[in-house]
Design brief:
- Chain A: This is Glutamyl-tRNA(Gln) amidotransferase subunit A.
- Chain A: It comes from Amnibacterium setariae.
- Chain A: InterPro entries: Amidase, Amidase_CS, Amidase_dom, AS_sf, GatA.
- The structure holds 2 protein chains of 2 kinds.
- Chain A is an alpha/beta fold.
- Chain A has a single domain, classed as Alpha-Beta Complex (Amidase signature (AS) enzymes), CATH 3.90.1300.
- Chain B is elongated, with a radius of gyration of 28 Å.
- By secondary structure, chain B is of the alpha+beta class.
- In chain B, the strands form 3 sheets. In chain B, strands 2-5-6-9-1-10-11-12-13 form a 9-stranded mixed beta sheet.
- In chain B, 39% of the residues lie in helices and 19% in strands.
- The chains are: A alpha/beta, B alpha+beta.
- At the A-B interface, helix 10 and helix 11 of A face loops of B.
Chain lengths: 518, 507
């Protein structure tokens, strides 16, 4: 593995700026790494080898002319397949969109391109982002780089695994109920779900419109912040996009790292998410992280969020309801898979196409959501769920009166074995218990690594949450916590991940013209 | 497919004797904003936008492509508020879009974004003037914003309908066109005047949206579409009868006929002990009848829920007041003012209203024609052709062309007879009156030398007539004038010819 792929995006950007490495070299190094580990990890659904190298050459040329579009120009990036890309298929992990190439870029992708980042390809995910393990991807599961027999989290397991396996320094994800944060937790990476409306949803294939949010996936808090700065901000194409002027997240991360202290920061432990019932090693590392934060000057307080216990139930009504409507467009009329046995009606073709194109979890949630919205059930299900949502928001408002940031373990367990929960939807749903409240309330959340669980040697994540619009606070506190822990460990957590890879294939693999969808 | 031609109808008067009709209308108005309701694609309902090439006016939102998001057209909101105010409605400080979910290929997303339980305008009234000048108040329930669907073309079947078709084509040009749907409350007490009230109501809505300048309001183009709800209940019964909804009745005349037809059809069924099926019905212009569409029940489950991709619409009080202040005078006030300005009698003015040509007449005058002349043409030749063809006069010829035609007669370029001929050709699509006159050489011959030559020739060939004129028998000139007019193929001013004949005869 080339040393180039060990660098963070910030480090790589410095080297690119200094001119001691080119974007072509960096891009090629990552493509080689992809070729090396993909047979084991399967983080990508599509690798854009030639296009990436062409773009990298272009960036190198611009930089030579003194016209690098941004500080991150030339840094490779992986993109979750839920985001529309002009030059790559965008399937959202579903057979129903196999091979579909959108006529537009999602706004976050367009902004990455404009800043000169180099898209390496599209990453694997649970179909339409429904799942916590990538096992519901129509194209096969991704494997956790820490233990290939385990899940990488989901739905954004592909982006998290790609970053954890050094196939990309940074990636984009989307988080509807934890799809950025939970994969980050179980792969020892950093993931941020921004404030709802902070990053445009335009071009993000919708799961649940009122919950979806695009965000960064990285190996460091600073890298996440750098990406956040590029993709964030108002977009007139998304009516729910906030018009706020945002402070620099990168500046906040740098300040947090430099300060090294949490003096004056009130850290609220959410009683309802404090880990009772969670895996032992998760509780242990969470407790230690709290202790470390207290030692650094944080005031640890316990806060109550009495309605969080209803959050999962509400979430699993709101999400399927919105999803059942959002997924109605997949009817084979204008794009996507069409199953037409001939001599059949439009309705029959629509039904057969959806039957063949959607996987079991998608069907489960479409049926659930259709039911929840049905006349006579609306008030009892969707209506009540929206009321719970309001109560969860109020819980947060009250909690943030006592604390500047709230904390919890990012997930109840470390990465569980592939196959363990795939036939038990309820167990899978419960995995999101910690992350869902932030989506219901629209507030920002971050997961960052806080160590390995002693019993299985797998990463544990800390979730930080801040009030809406206070994303910068997450980066500042997160960067401080990260610096304290790394000082203690002497190296980033990922340096302890097992070696991956097989004998290196012939040079140039991944740069072949057919680096296409697999 | 039932064509309705076999429906048993009860005599209208008898139907009214036994049953009380209750009416209700849903009128869809296509707004003429530059872009669509939720996308930046050009709006085919805007003036001058060519939508003839299928799927040429679409953005990703209109196609329901994955990842595309709707954004509310602020101009459409302003138009809707103006319309709500003109309908005497209250404007909601907060209104919301919802998703109406159903699968249909002309609906890109398989849901329609529409306002459901929180419309932008509610509780209004519209004053409708009937043919004898009485005013009728129609109560308005609500006016809400929504998007139009695309259009399906069924190919391979005999009738152009889906039954028997081999395949269907979808054109999404119309998908996303901004609509305001105006819904009335049930209209009671219309009795014998039900068909007339129906027509007058839709005409009033048309006049209102035209005066606001928010829609082209051409019914034949679907800018304004009326769904007419009709139910009957036996005299003395409190409970409302089952209603039918006759869809897309696309002319004022058809609105009147469709309501009359449904009253007669339903009365016959009820009188025979049958029951009315709650359903949509299609209006057939050719047979003047309705036929069954799809069953419609109040329990249709569209799984409405608030559209999560859009924020609530919250117009500021300042905006509402600004739009209120900018409202044009109501069509009723406008009519009163025009009648006074034009100096028409009540009778004359009513004829204009009944012919449905007031807007056309007003525009013709605004282009420079004298009111009396404009009235003469719209109520005369144009109305005659319109009646002959069973269409609205306004669809035949534009006010601009009528004013041009009037100008040509006023300055003597056309005689009345020639002008009627030119009108026919303009209606036939040969161009503007000027163009027709040029192309066909129909101008009055005002060149005296040409006339004199013809007159001298006529006088020479009729020496007896010449002698009579010379003897002072001026009426004898008629024979010569006739011959000259014939030689000029009618393209001469008869009065001038007469002058010249007398002059030449004395020479």
């Amino acid at each position: 593995m080339s040393e180039l792929t060990r660098w963070t995006a910030a480090e790589l950007a410095e080297h690119l700026d200094a001119g001691d490495v080119s974007s072509v070299e960096a891009t090629r190094a990552h493509l080689d790494r992809i070729a090396e580990v993909e047979p084991d990890v399967h983080a990508f659904l599509h690798v854009a080898g030639p296009a990436a190298l062409t773009r990298a050459e272009e960036i190198d040329r611009l930089r030579a002319e003194g016209r690098a579009p941004s500080a991150l120009a030339g840094v490779p990036v992986a993109i979750k397949d839920v985001l529309c890309t002009l030059d790559m298929p965008s399937t959202a992990g579903s057979k129903i969109l196999e091979g579909w190439v959108p006529p537009y870029d999602a706004t976050p992708v367009a902004r990455l391109r404009a800043a000169g980042l180099v898209p390496l390809g599209k990453t694997n995910m649970d179909e339409f982002a429904m799942g916590s393990s990538t096992e519901y991807s129509a194209y096969g599961a991704t494997h956790n780089p820490w233990d290939l027999s385990r899940i990488p989290g989901g739905s954004g397991g592909g982006s998290a695994a790609a970053v954890a396996a050094f196939e990309a320094p940074v990636a984009l994800g989307s988080d509807t109920g934890g799809s950025i944060r939970q994969p980050a937790a179980v792969t020892g990476t950093v993931g941020v779900k921004p404030t709802y409306g902070g990053v445009s949803r335009y071009g993000s294939i919708a799961l649940a419109s009122s919950l979806d949010q695009v965000g960064p996936v990285s190996r460091t808090v600073l890298d996440a912040a750098l990406i956040h700065d590029v993709i964030g901000g108002h977009d007139p194409h998304d009516a729910t996009s906030l018009t706020d002027e945002w402070p620099s997240m990168a500046a906040a991360a740098r300040r947090g790292k430099a300060e090294g202290s949490l003096a004056g920061v009130r850290v609220g432990v959410v009683h309802q998410l404090d880990g009772s019932g969670f895996q032992g090693g998760v509780r242990q590392r969470f407790g230690e992280a709290l202790k470390r934060m207290a030692e650094a000057g944080a005031e640890i307080v316990e806060v109550q969020a009495p309605h969080f216990e209803y959050a999962i139930s509400a979430y699993y009504l709101i999400l399927p309801a919105e999803a059942s409507s959002n997924l109605a467009k997949y009817d084979s009329v204008r794009f996507g898979l069409r199953v037409d046995p001939g001599r059949s009606t439009t309705e029959q073709v629509m039904a057969l196409s959806r039957e063949a194109g959607f996987g079991p979890e998608v069907k489960r949630r479409v049926i659930l959501g259709t039911y929840a919205l049905s006349a006579g059930y609306y008030d009892a299900y969707y209506g009540s769920a929206q009321q719970v949502r309001t109560l969860v928001q109020r819980d947060f408002t009250a909690a943030f009166e006592q604390a500047d940031v709230l904390v919890s373990p990012s997930a109840p367990t470390t990465a569980f074995p592939l196959g363990e929960k795939v036939d038990d939807p309820l167990a899978m749903y419960l995995n999101d218990v910690t992350t869902i409240p932030a989506n219901l309330a629209g507030i920002p959340g971050m997961s960052l690594p806080i160590g390995l669980a002693p019993e299985d040697g797998l990463p544990v994540g800390l979730q930080l949450m801040a009030p809406a619009r206070e994303d910068a606070r997450l980066y500042r506190v997160g960067a401080t916590v990260e610096a304290l822990l790394e000082a203690e460990w002497g190296a980033p957590l990922l340096s302890r991940a097992p070696k991956l890879g097989r004998p290196v294939p012939p040079p140039g693999f991944g740069t072949e013209p057919d680096g296409g969808t697999r | 497919m039932a064509t309705g031609a076999t429906d048993v109808l009860m005599d209208f008067d008898e139907a009214l004797e036994r049953f009380e009709p209750v009416l209700g209308f849903e009128v869809h108005v296509e707004l003429s904003t530059a872009t669509k309701m939720f996308s930046p694609a050009p709006n085919p309902a805007a003036p001058g936008v060519d939508s003839s090439v299928p799927n040429s006016l679409v953005a990703p939102v209109d196609m329901g492509l994955p990842g595309a998001l709707p954004v509310v057209n602020a101009e459409a909101v302003r138009y809707s508020i103006s319309l709500g105010l003109a309908l005497g409605c209250s404007i909601a400080p907060t209104s919301r879009f919802a998703r109406k979910n159903y699968f249909y290929p002309d609906l890109g997303k398989n849901y329609q974004i529409s306002q459901y339980d929180e419309p932008i305008a509610f509780e209004g009234t519209v004053e409708v003037e009937l043919e004898d000048g009485t005013l009728w108040t129609v109560p308005i329930e609500r006016a809400h914003m929504e998007e139009d669907a695309g259009k399906l073309t069924h190919v391979g079947g005999a009738t152009g309908r889906i039954q028997g078709a081999d395949h269907s084509l979808v054109d999404y040009n119309r998908a996303g066109v901004p609509l305001v749907e105006i819904v009335t409350k049930p209209i009671f007490g219309a009795e014998h005047r039900a068909p007339e009230i129906a027509k007058a109501y839709v005409a009033t809505i048309r006049d209102i949206v035209r005066s606001l300048g928010i829609s082209e309001a051409r019914m034949e183009r679907g800018n304004l579409r009326c769904d007419a709800n009709v139910s009957l209940r036996p005299r003395g019964q409190e409970r409302l009868g089952t209603r039918t909804e006759t869809k897309n009745v696309n002319s004022l005349r058809s609105v009147e006929r469709a309501v009359r037809y449904e009253i007669q059809r339903q009365a016959a069924i009820l009188a025979a002990g049958g029951t009315i099926v709650q359903e949509t019905r299609h209006w057939h212009e050719d047979t003047g009848s309705t036929s069954a569409g799809r069953p419609k029940s109040d329990a249709d489950d569209y799984r409405y829920f608030p559209e999560p991709d859009l924020l609530p619409v919250e117009p500021s009080l300042a905006l509402i007041e600004e739009l209120r202040a900018a409202l044009p005078e109501s069509p009723a006030a406008f009519r009163r003012r025009l009648q006074a300005d034009y100096g028409f009698t009540d009778g004359e003015f009513r004829d204009i209203l009944n012919a449905g040509v007031l807007a056309e007449l007003e525009e013709t005058v605004s282009k420079g024609a004298a009111p009396a002349q404009a009235r003469k043409w719209w109520l005369g030749e144009i109305l005659r052709i319109a009646n002959q063809r069973g269409v609205e006069p306004g669809t035949l010829v534009s006010p601009l062309h009528v004013s041009e035609l009037i100008a040509l007669t006023e300055n003597g370029d056309l005689t009345d007879r020639l002008a009627r001929q030119v009108l026919e050709l303009v209606v036939a699509g040969e161009g503007s009156p000027e163009e027709v006159v040029q192309a066909r050489g129909l101008k009055v011959v005002s060149d005296d030398s040409a006339l004199i030559a013809a007159i001298d020739e006529a006088l020479a060939s009729q020496p007896d007539v010449l002698q009579k004129i010379k003897d002072g028998k001026v009426q004898a000139a008629g024979a010569v004038i006739g011959a000259v007019m014939k030689a000029m193929r009618g393209q001469a001013d008869a009065a001038r010819v007469r002058e010249l004949v007398l002059e030449r005869a004395q020479a």
